[in-house]
Amino acid sequence: MSFSKKYLPLVLGVAIATGIFIGGKLDFGDSRDKLFSTNSKKDKLNRLIDYIEYDYVDDINTDSIVDVTVNGILENLDPHSVYIPKEDMQRVAEEMKGDFVGIGVSFYTYKDTIAVIRAIENGPSAKAGIQGGDRILMADGDTLYGNKLNDGDIINKLKGEINSKVKLTVFRRGEPELLEFNVKRGKIPIKSVDAAYMLTGDLGYIKINRFAESTYKEFKSGLDKLESLGATQMALDLRGNPGGFLSIAEKIVDEFLEDDKLILFTKNKRGDVDKSFATSKGDFENGKVYVLIDENSASASEIVAGALQDNDKGTIVGRRSYGKGLVQREMDLGDGSAVRLTVSRYYTPTGRSIQRPYDHGNKDYYDEYFERLDSGELLDPEKIQVDDSLKFTTPAGKVVYGGGGIIPDVFVPLDKSMQNETLSFLLRRGFFGNFVFEELEQDRHKYDGISRQDFVDDYEVGDDLVFAFQDYLNLRSDSKVTFVAYHDEVKQYIKATLADQLFGNGAFEEVYNQRDLMVEEVIKLSEENQ
């Protein structure tokens, strides 16, 4: 629940693997009795654990041994079969469900205290009167400040049963005494659609950060709004989207594809094929669509891009996607933990698998981003390596390739600012957000008379704020930081972060996209296609 930084630099690792999964839709053909019958392999593992528990010389937590064993087994399968410990299950379930029960604030821990960045619009805290800049000191008399509390402890104290009440004790600058608020907990959305707004008079823009249970509903609401504003073309931004539920991706594709067009098909180890087709429900079948992807667009994101590309619908813009063509199914392990096990592969309508190889181990698999960077692929489309044996042709005669991600129709190189190590580090560590929060603390009311649209369109960040940011960083660093080469980019990040903390609801994207190379390319393409 701590403040989420937008447009973080492109970092691959095990973390992205745990975020890259799609809901399986296949059932095992074997009976439960056959699957779980006794055999010597299972007996061997059970005996070893029993020997350690009862006979080993020291006391050992056998639960931890089991966790290590499970992870060791999965590491020998594929990079996307993952174990979810029971302590992580609730968080993972909430993220994929798309909501949780809480008080509805965006916060981060500032000087050992909960500092409210923004109360979520129409949420419980906003209705009770909590404001940005408030410090939440206590919840029902329990202290919420000090070095010993982490974000997990804080969140657990603020969560509770739906409609239950919590008394918050709050410090607010300028108030002579502490304030108290009775907040009724409610369902708080974990938004998967970051922004939905008009880029031009007829070009809409929707950014999806993952495919959760609530994503289609959020997407459809945004699509309907933009159509009512005159959108006949749509930019669907899937950059950095690690995936999610297969069924949600299918529903979103269905909005763009004509009836009975193949969306994808899956194949399991027994050779069973399951095909998914578009229906008559699509509301944007006659509109032009542009799909924005990059090297961190994976899984369900690639399903959307691949289905539209293979059906000659729209234009894929950006850089080669991640390359994940495996389908996982979540399986309960009986103790509150679960495993997401790869149960099939999916194929785009032309029959291509976009799963990249993983036969050299997980480390090489996750390090491929750096190989792409070193090879120059992220800057030059000619450096993308393709396998002619994996060449496919769309109905309109366009050549596409399998074997490792979706190659875009229109290439856009990596922004040079994203190659700057200092800027990437500052984004990754949240310095922009912290700095902007402290700036707002000095005088939040100076923005009271500025509407969201006026701020997005007309507000200018002065050079003095960039220099103040440099001073802020230099007080916290042994080396001197300057932004000579990236002065304008830093201004844009500061303005976008200000917009996010003041207004939320996609304001960051509206500001940042004004200088975004890929968005600029889409606008150019849309104007050419009118």
Task: Please provide a written account of the structure.
With 530 residues, this protein is α+β, with helices and mostly antiparallel strands. It has three domains: 99-189, Pdz3 Domain (Roll); 193-415, Alpha-Beta Complex (2-enoyl-CoA Hydratase, Chain A, domain 1); 418-521, no CATH class. The protein is built from 19 helices and 21 strands. It has helices at 14-19, 32-35, 40-55, 62-75, 86-97, 124-128, 151-158, 215-228, 246-254, 300-310, 362-366, 368-375, 421-428, 431-442, 452-458, 463-474, 487-502, 507-512, 517-528, and strands at 82-84, 99-102, 105-110, 113-119, 135-139, 142-143, 165-171, 179-184, 186-189, 193-198, 203-208, 233-237, 262-268, 273-277, 288-293, 315-318, 326-332, 338-347, 391-393, 399-401, 410-411. Strands 3, 4, 5, 6, 7 and 8 form a six-stranded antiparallel β-sheet that branches. A six-stranded mixed β-sheet has the order 10-11-12-15-16-21, with helices on both faces. A hairpin with a 2-residue loop joins strand 3 (105-110) and strand 4. The radius of gyration is 25 Å and the shape is globular.
SSE topology:
Elements: H1 14-19, H2 32-35, H3 40-55, H4 62-75, E1 82-84, H5 86-97, E2 99-102, E3 105-110, E4 113-119, H6 124-128, E5 135-139, E6 142-143, H7 151-158, E7 165-171, E8 179-184, E9 186-189, E10 193-198, E11 203-208, H8 215-228, E12 233-237, H9 246-254, E13 262-268, E14 273-277, E15 288-293, H10 300-310, E16 315-318, E17 326-332, E18 338-347, H11 362-366, H12 368-375, E19 391-393, E20 399-401, E21 410-411, H13 421-428, H14 431-442, H15 452-458, H16 463-474, H17 487-502, H18 507-512, H19 517-528
Parallel strand pairs: 11-12, 12-15, 15-16, 16-21
Antiparallel strand pairs: 1-18, 2-9, 3-4, 4-5, 5-6, 5-7, 7-8, 10-11, 13-14, 13-18, 17-18, 19-20
Helix pairs in contact: 8-9, 9-10, 14-17
